[in-house]
Structures are given as structure tokens and as C-alpha cells.
Amino acid sequence: MRIFFLSALVLASCVGFGQKECFTPLPNAVERLSTDLKYLSSDKLEGRAPGEEGGNLAAYYIANQFSRLELPGVWRGDFLQPFEVPVDAVFGIDNVLSFDENELKLNEDYYPTRFTINGEVKGEAVYVKYGMVASEINYDDYKKLKPKKLEGKIFVMDVSSPDGIHPHSAYLKYHDLGDRITMAKEKGAIAVVLVNMDGSANDIAPTFKTLQSKGLPVVFVTNNEMAKKLKKAKNIDLQTEVTEKKITTYNVAAHLDNGAKKTVIIGAHYDHLGFGNRSSLAADKGKVIHNGADDNASGTAALIEIARNIAKNKEVFKAHNYVFVAFSAEEMGLLGSDYFVDSYEHIKDIKYMLNMDMVGRLEDMVLAVNGVGTSGIWRKLVEDSKCSEIKVKTSLSGVGPSDHTNFYYKDIPVLHFFTGTHSDYHKPSDDFEKLNIKGEAQVVDFILQVIYKSQRHRDMLFAKTTEASSAAPKFSVTLGVMPDYMYEGEGMRIDGVNDGKPAQKAGLITGDVVIQLGDVKVVDMMSYMKALGQFKKGDNAKVVVKRGKEKVTKEVKF
């Protein structure tokens, strides 16, 4: 039996919550969410990796749900927006590095870096130390090298700095290798050979997905004996050949056109890690399906359910047009949403964007809503949308590790909905059985109230926010834990401990609240990061945690 909702019936007074006028969602949400979640997080989809069969099956499923709602696709009726993403960079057989009478072996003695271009150069070598210029502290590696001695040369450059690579280096702002390579090119370099002489810096990663070329060949030498000889090298022969391997994946989007002036974007990413990739936090890096039930089958199922409610109550939601979009390649660096915002023709008509990423594990009725600082209207609107017992923890920033960030950078107000981290994050154990589906239905209800009540506001002016990342201390070590971002007490509560990392080896467990690290008292996330900034690889530190009613002291080695 099909149920028709009249506008007058869809508006209900929420008894006990200030007699607010609220939207009544479609009944049986838990059953529909459960059906969607079971499929999207099933082994059949093999972790929904972009470009793979499982990822494509997820895309087709989402498109089919939109089609059943009689919503047209965004791209001339098509639901799928194809785009290419890099998955690997492959070194060709034509890579060559030799100097004087020494010939180095690819992957054994050296390898190209992500900064390189493909090309062949021969020239005189010049050692430029760290390739740094820090005039305010009277340091210049090029000072004694005349411009004529630099022009057309191949620069040999150390990846470290005069006092090493660590958070307290006096040269911290000059550590960026990309900037140093760009400066080398400006000073006349035709290629750069990077070395790591004393081990005070990490080696450059031997694998990467995509090139970030600086306009000249750039390689890194891992053979320490060869690196030392390169300081005094006379002539270098260098040839680089790197090919980016790409795959095609799809954003999936449907459109409800109400003929309104403004459009609301409602989004979630549907991709995950497949059989596990570099982002997997599993102790065993073997080939195991990462189903990503919470990350982000939960957000995808919520997206579909919100689309159902709006599509079947068009008269109630007629003040805006709506685009429901499931992004791919979020786990690869927000690539799907980046492609969407750059290609969407009506970007200036967007009123706001809502993003759901990890909304499947509601605990204690607490929902994180990030981005309330991106418009002056958000705070009151979020408060007015509490038509149930759900509690809201807000943050201001419009920037975070999810797709709303790309909309924020287009000066669009955003909100990001999130039920918190957990120990199964980016592990094969993030499965359907661990979801709180009734809780997710309550999250969907809350988001629908936000959308419904936003219709009362004709204008929603964008506001820039101070990003926490710009003020956060820099650190080069990790404890190997998953912080509980929903925790509101004093200290930093551990929501998960990663296998084989310093915290686990020291005996820290999920639920511990870090209250001191080294000499720093930890009262919140910022002080925790400040404490981490004291240490470098190999250091030992005392860590004090609250474990229940007890205080426990452990020794951590980074």
C-alpha cells in the first residue's frame, strides 16, 4: 500500500521539545536503511574501491535508488559522472642515473620522486647542501655559489636541514622539499638529485600515486655510499620515465528541480578501501575486504533515505532545488567532490551543502555537527532542528577530512554530520553488525529538520572560519591511537588503539583518557598535539592516563 502524505499532515508538533513545528519523516526508516546498508557493506561489493567492480556495483545501486524515486540524473538525465583518478605511478625501463664512473640501479640505489618530469639531462654536478635560503636568520646555502656556477647544472641536495627535520627546527618553515626544488630551478638547475646524508630526515617515499612535477627531473638516492660520492661528483647523466596509471570511477547524482532560485547539495561519499590499501590501519596488511559499513556506507544510506523523504514530499520541500550526490574517490583525497565542484555548471546557485560521513554509530544520542561557523544562520538553525532527544556537539570550521571541504573553498556554507571515530576505522572490522541503525534513523530525522527549517531563511551568507589546522602544532611522531572527538571531558580519550603502534606497546587501551604526555598537561586535543610536538622518532615519554577511577602511568617509545 502506497502512503500519501499531505502537507498539513507532514508537519507535527514535537511534544516535549518546545512545541516546535517539525517535519515527520517517512515511517519504517530503520528497515530501509538496514536494506541499503546490508548491500553497500556486503562482501559482494569488495570494499567499494574506486574503479573496481565492487565500486561500480555500489554506483549502480545508488543510481537505481534515485531512479525508483523518479528523480532525473544531473548530467543530461544520466546519474553517473565519470572521471579519472590516479592509482599508481609506474617507473619505466628508461630510468638512468650515473655519475663519473658509477652507475646506480633503479629501485635498489635510487628512484624517481613525485616532483619529477620525464626527461633526459646530462651536466655538471654542484652540491648545494640543503638548498635553503633563510635570510631572517642569516642562512643561505647558495651564498658562496656564484650564479654562473649554478646555471645549467644538476643540483645535489640533502633532504634534511642544518638542524634536522623535527618540529622544533629553526628552519621549519623552509623544510618543504617542493619549495626547495622550485628555488633550485629558479637558480638554474636542470635536474635535482636528492640525498639523505646523516639520516636526520626520513627518506622520500618510494611509491606515490600521482606526479606533482616541479618542471625538471628529480630523483632520490637511497644508497648511502653513492650519496656521499655524489657530494663530489663532476658529471651526472640522468633520465627519468614515470607513467601515471589511472582508472575511471563515477560520482552519482540526481536532481529535484522545483524551479527555485537556490539549490541545496546533499552529499556523502560511497567509496572505501577495497581489499585494503595504504590507508588501511589493519595490523595485517594482507588482502582482506574492508567493507566500510560506517565509513561510509552509513552516509550513503542516509543520503538515499533523505532523497526518499524529499522526493515523496515535494510540496513540503518546494523552497529549494536539490541535488543528491554520492561522491567517489573521497578516500584518495576528496577527488570526487573536487571534480564535482569544478564541473558543476550551477555552482553559484548553491545555497548550502550538507555532508554525511560516518553517521552509523550514534552513541549517547550525541551527533557532531561541524561547520556551523560557515554561516551566521547555522547555529540557531541547528538548535531549532532538535525535534528529538538527539544532542548536538558543534564546531565552527568548514574544513575537514571530508567532501564538504571542497564546497567550503567555493565560498558555500557547509555542515558535516558525524557520529564519531571508533577502533574499527579503516579496518576490515568496520562491518554491518556494528552499526546502530536506529541511531542512524535519528540522525536522518535531524538532518531532514535542518533542511526543512532552512526554507524559512531566504538568504544564507557565507562566512570564512579560522581553521583549526592552521593553528595546530606540528609534530613528527604519533602515539598510534584514535582520539574520541565526541569526548567533552578534560584530557584526550582514546577511542581505539592501533596494532603495533607505540600506545599498544606501552599498554594503553581503548577508554583510557590521556591527561599528561611528557611534561605537558593534556586538557584537550590541542594540548595533546602540542605535547606530541615535543618528541621525535626514538624518544621515550611518560604518559599518564585515567583508567576508570585510577591514574595509570606508562612509558611510551616513539
Look at the structure and give the CATH class of the largest domain.
Answer: Alpha Beta
Total strands: the figure is 26
Query: CATH superfamily of the largest domain, called what?
Result: Zn peptidases
How are the strands ordered across the major sheet? 3-14-16-15-17-20-18-19
Query: Which stretches are low in confidence, meaning pLDDT under 50 for 5 or more residues running?
Result: 1-19
CA radius of gyration: 27 Å
Q: Taking all residues together, what is the mean pLDDT? A: 91
Provide the β-strand percentage band. Answer: 25-35%
Shape descriptor reads: globular
What name is given to the CATH topology of the largest domain?
Answer: Aminopeptidase
Q: What is the architecture of the largest domain at the second tier of CATH?
A: 3-Layer(aba) Sandwich
Largest sheet: 8 strands, mixed
**Helix percentage range:** 10-25%
Overall tally of structural domains: 3
Quote the distance from N terminus to C terminus. Answer: 62 Å
Count helical runs: 14
Structural class: alpha/beta
Explain how this protein is built.
There is one protein chain. By secondary structure, this protein is α/β, with parallel strands linked by helices. It folds into 3 domains: 7-79 and 258-330 and 338-388 and 428-454, Zn peptidases (Aminopeptidase, 3-Layer(aba) Sandwich); 93-240, Glucose Oxidase, domain 1 (3-Layer(bba) Sandwich); 478-557, PDZ domain (Pdz3 Domain, Roll). The protein is built from 14 helices and 26 strands. The chain has helices at residues 7-10, 29-40, 53-68, 147-150, 177-186, 224-230, 293-311, 335-343, 378-384, 404-408, 437-454, 468-471, 502-506, 525-532; strands at residues 11-13, 21-23, 80-91, 96-99, 102-103, 110-112, 119-127, 133-134, 139-140, 154-158, 191-195, 218-221, 235-240, 242-256, 263-269, 321-327, 350-356, 366-370, 391-395, 414-418, 481-483, 492-497, 513-517, 520-521, 540-547, 550-557. The chain has an 8-stranded mixed sheet with strand order 3-14-16-15-17-20-18-19, with helices on both faces. A hairpin with a 4-residue loop joins strand 8 (133-134) and strand 9. The chain is globular, with a radius of gyration of 27 Å. The N and C termini lie far apart (62 Å).
